[in-house]
Each structure stands twice: as structure tokens, then as C-alpha cells.
Design brief:
Bound molecules: S-adenosylmethionine
Radius of gyration: 15 Å
CATH superfamily: Vaccinia Virus protein VP39
Strand content: 15-25%
CATH topology: Rossmann fold
Number of strands: 9
Length: about 180
């Protein structure tokens, strides 16, 4: 894997969060229908290595926030997609993608419920709402690959748990249909 490319991505996001803090803002907020909190770059990169993400061709992050997870996934997969309804976060994802000239990431600024996920090898979620509010139903209908779930909260109840592991105390769980 290209550790230098990862370091460049991480630097852009560290700068973004530092700028927000300088303006007295936290790098987390309500986005209207959801809530933005960001994944930890090193944890995501380590988890994707451990999961051999390079063996998967396509990846989608449902609720991709500022795009960090998608840009890290683009180092492993041919096609990395992010869907985020908040326009400001979407624009930040595009800005960093352009700055780093990453060609194989695609960002959509809309509701992930409007997109089919059946074609993706890997679906990622760092959820901001309980799964029974619709996401688990969507996964039960459309998931053909694996789900990588990040965090201790809002786990699916009906998908099949394959395995899980901790990185720095944060939980990664892999599910299938
Ligand atoms: C906890 S954040 C995770 C951000 C990113 N995946 C990460 O790990 O850094 C959840 C994001 O999902 C977005 N979101 C929630 N429901 C959504 C929906 N139905 N369609 C698109 N985005 C959604 C929120 O706006 C928020 O940015």
C-alpha cells in the first residue's frame, strides 16, 4: 500500500480540523437529517490493510461526511464512492480529492437511500442513527458484498456477523447478508 499517499490524505484532513478549531468550531455537527463525526484516519487505514481491502474492486461509504474514508479506500479499490447529503462536507471532499488529484473516487451529494448498493463489493458505515430507521432494511435488501461497520454503536441486528476486531479501542465489525 502507498503509505505516502495515505500520509498526504491524513495531512489534508488534519489541516481542515485545525482550521475549524481555529474558528472556534468543532469537527462534528448536526447535518440536518444526520450527524457528522469523522473516522480516525490511522484506524481506517490499518483496518483496510488488515481486511485486505485491495482484494475488493468497489467501495461505498454511506454518509461519507468530508470524504476521508472514501479517499483512503481509493488507495485500495479501483472505485471508491461516497454519498453525503450535507453540501458543505461534500464540497470539502471534492476539494481535497482535486487537490490530491485522486482519480478513482466519486462523490454524490444526496441521500444514500436513493442509491442502490447492490453492485458494491464493500459497503462502509460509521452510522449516525439506529439501523432500524431504514438502513438495515436497505442492507438486507441490497447488500451483496460485505458491510464494514465502524464503532460500538448502532449495530445491525439481522445481518450475519462475520468477525470483528479492535483498533485503538475502536470496533470494526464485518457483516454479510
Ligand atoms: C458519523 S458521520 C460519518 C462520516 C464518514 N463516513 C466518516 O466515517 O468519517 C455520518 C454522516 O452520514 C451523513 N448521512 C446521514 N444520513 C444520510 C443519508 N440518508 N444520506 C446521505 N448522508 C447521510 C451525515 O450527514 C454525516 O455526515
Amino acid at each position: 500500500m502507498d503509505d505516502n499517499a495515505f500520509i498526504e490524505i491524513k495531512k489534508e484532513y488534519d489541516d481542515f480540523y485545525r482550521d475549524l478549531l481555529r474558528q472556534g468550531k468543532l469537527p462534528l455537527r448536526n447535518t440536518g437529517r444526520g450527524f457528522w463525526g469523522h473516522a480516525i484516519a490511522e484506524e481506517i487505514y490499518s483496518a483496510f490493510k488488515r481486511l485486505n481491502l485491495q482484494k475488493s474492486k468497489s467501495f461505498v461509504d454511506l454518509g461519507s461526511g468530508d470524504g476521508k474514508v472514501v479517499l483512503i479506500a481509493s488507495l485500495f479499490c479501483k472505485r471508491a464512492v461516497g454519498i453525503e447529503m450535507d453540501n458543505e462536507l461534500h464540497q470539502k471532499a471534492l476539494e481535497i480529492q482535486r487537490k490530491l488529484s485522486i482519480p478513482n473516487a466519486i462523490f454524490y451529494n444526496n441521500d444514500f437511500f436513493a442509491h442502490s448498493i447492490s453492485e458494491f463489493d464493500v459497503v462502509f458505515t460509521y452510522p449516525d442513527a439506529p439501523m432500524e430507521r431504514g438502513l438495515e432494511k436497505k442492507l438486507l435488501n441490497e447488500l451483496n458484498g460485505k458491510l464494514i461497520h465502524y464503532g460500538h454503536h448502532f449495530h445491525p441486528l439481522q445481518l450475519k456477523k462475520e468477525h470483528s476486531f479492535f483498533i485503538n479501542g475502536d470496533l470494526f465489525t464485518v457483516y454479510s447478508r
